[in-house]
């Protein structure tokens, strides 16, 4: 048996899969005593090296013993004692998540209980449980003169939710929200923001859910909006988001630049943060120091320094402070003002990769928007690596799919294409709550700023000229992507009209 030849390297537990059958190839007691754990999935029919986390990876005698137990070479990586213990406990089914921060325990709820004399806690739990069960992204509790409405956002659209909330009980429900969010229960004249942590699911299978809460006073009382931040599902990679392989490679190439600015644009709720997080997964490694300023922090990354924007520290305050922290990558949740744009531009010019978002209609709009925020054309041309614009389109429900008749937009599209195709719609069923849609799919427009486009930007060319040049270079617009989804019967012309700015549908370059 040969001596171990692969030198150990320092690593992080989060970079590896913990596969219980593989972890259990070594005894729990032995691993605890020697501070070792098998990482990743071991193929028992192969003879590839096995990755083993060790507290002391230079212990050659221990490496030889492990090779003897496993009958194959090992690759040692260094972990700390806590990470080794955690991995062992997960692999042997002994790990328990810390539930101490959860203010609520919520169960799946299909229908609200309209029984009399229900407590504020029971009423609120019903609303939140229903919303999570339906897959809502937001909950709107709206108060009117003699009525209370509860609406939830499903697949980007608001839908009324039947609940027992009324003018008779809404005050105690909002008070309950304030108590668990640690807000001022007596303050009813100013807006307040807070956060609640909950556990959702059947007993023994609950996963963490965060709620970001905004309470705003009005003439009839206080309204509340809750954003659901589900920490249970895994983050998506760029391919799973819906980007075609060639554009996944394009975006990853932009994100791997040592310096410059990469922007994600789109309206609120279009998935910009999810896309930024997907880029961070590509960049998160021990070799990079990554700093983020977010509002809110929607997902916690291991070994990334994430900061919550608040009254004391704005996006620009954090960005300015980050420059003194020797970062490789800076993520700024949103460039909202000239101050933040200036700091982001300075960071992108001085050896840092900067990721951020803007609210613009398309990729080219981001170029002109940076100019309106005080960055001159030469500077934008120098720092801007690329822009990704995106929308989320509702998908036709698979259960009630049917052929759709043509409308004016379909006729216009067919005329431009010089051909026609069958397209679909949803008739409405129980699965899609009568909407004809179930789930969403992303459409993306990727603008990579090469030298030719940078020259156009530097000379102050108009957005139309830049867009025309980008299309000639192969850029597919939001309209192109949406139309392709319609042709594949994944979505409808109605959704195309809702999601794609009308000027992009009607611009001369598309005719």
Chart the SSEs and their pairings:
Layout: E1 9-10, H1 20-23, H2 28-34, E2 36-39, E3 50-54, H3 60-70, E4 74-78, H4 81-91, E5 104-106, H5 120-134, E6 138-143, E7 148-154, E8 157-160, H6 170-180, E9 192-200, E10 207-218, E11 221-230, H7 238-241, H8 245-255, E12 260-265, H9 272-283, E13 290-294, E14 305-308, H10 315-322, E15 329-332, H11 338-349, E16 353-358, H12 363-372, H13 377-383, E17 384-396, E18 401-403, H14 408-417, E19 424-426, E20 437-448, H15 451-458, H16 463-472, H17 478-487, H18 493-499, H19 502-506
Parallel strand pairs: 1-4, 3-4, 5-9, 12-16, 12-17, 13-14, 13-15, 15-16
Antiparallel strand pairs: 2-3, 6-7, 6-11, 7-8, 9-10, 10-11, 17-20, 18-19
Helix pairs in contact: 5-6, 10-11, 12-16, 13-15
Task: Please characterize this protein's 3D structure.
- By secondary structure, the protein is of the alpha/beta class.
- Helix content is about 35%, strand content about 25%.
- It has 19 helices and 20 strands.
- A seven-stranded mixed beta sheet has the order 5-9-10-11-6-7-8.
- Helix 5 packs across helix 6, helix 10 runs parallel beside helix 11 and helix 13 packs antiparallel against helix 15.
- The chain is globular, with a radius of gyration of 26 Å.
- The N terminus is likely disordered.
Provide mean pLDDT, rounded: 88
Question: What distance separates the N and C termini?
Answer: 70 Å
Radius of gyration: 26 Å
Largest sheet: 7 strands, mixed
How large is the share of residues in beta strands? 15-25%
Report the structural category.
Answer: alpha/beta
Return residue spans where pLDDT drops below 50 for at least 5 consecutive residues: 1-8
Q: Helical content, roughly?
A: 25-40%
